[in-house]
Amino acid sequence: MSQDLFASGPEWLLDNQLLLIKDFLSSDEATQLQRMLTETMPWKQETLTIYGKEHPIPRLQAWMGDDNIQYRYSGKTFQAERWSGQLKTLADKLSTVAATRFNSVLLNLYRDGNDAMGWHSDDEPELGPAPVIASLSLGAERDFAVRRRGSSRQHAVISLPHGSLLIMQAGMQRQWQHSVPRRKAISDSRINLTFRQIFTDKTLPESGT
Ligand SMILES: O=C(O)CCC(=O)C(=O)O
User: Fold this and answer.
1) Which numbered atom of ligand 1 lies nearest the CA of 190?
2) Mind listing the domains of the chain with CATH numbers?
3) Predicted structure pTM score
């Protein structure tokens, strides 16, 4: 992990499973990026099938990456759209920061505090056995809650400000779940980008590496 690229104060949290860099982007850079993404991304409200019934998820999503990147999530296959030059440049920069090779990004648009994300770990097989995920937050400051896998008790809440970068380290998804709880008092929107390395059957590393 290269830390000398940061302007100031990265914080290690949760037994070093999370690295938070609050000022990864300046406020102006973050605002500009949020505006550009709000206007140009192919936002969609996906649905999840629960007990045979389709439910719209409480947020909008877009999925961008290298050619032929596919991701299975909740029984569905999503094909990444080819990313713009600006997102690819950002992915390359974050790959250097996180010492990995991000080939895709999942974008979530939380329209206001009624939009949310439930408890989960990012542990789909395509992410490999020990995924490192870089999560960039733009817009309304929202809580990121964590709990141990197998426990229903919330362990910690980390507030993610405009322009912040949170890097989930390799052991995080095995041990912890995370969520973005509803916050009804928040009326502003937020975009979160999670940069991921998606493996194909051919590039998947062995379990335990
Ligand atoms: O919006 C966030 O901060 C978290 C997003 C997330 O958990 C995910 O994309 O898996």
Assistant:
1) 1
2) 11-196 (2.60.120.590)
3) 0.92
Above 70 in pLDDT, residue 202? no
pLDDT tens digits, one per residue of 127-149: 999 999 999 999 999 999 999 99
Helix (H), strand (E) at residue 176? strand 176-180
Distances, alpha carbon 56 to alpha carbons 7, 42, 88, 116, in Å = 40, 17, 29, 12
In the numeric block, the tokens 């290298």 are attached to 66
Residue 92 has a CB neighbour count (10 Å cut-off) of: 11
> Nearest-CA neighbor of 194 among 129, 147, 124?
124
Whether the pLDDT of residue 24 is over 60: the answer is: yes
Q: How many CB atoms lie within 10 A of CB 29?
A: 13
Residue 197 has a CB neighbour count (10 Å cut-off) of 21
Say how many Å lie between the CA of residue 195 and the centre of ligand 1.
Answer: 10
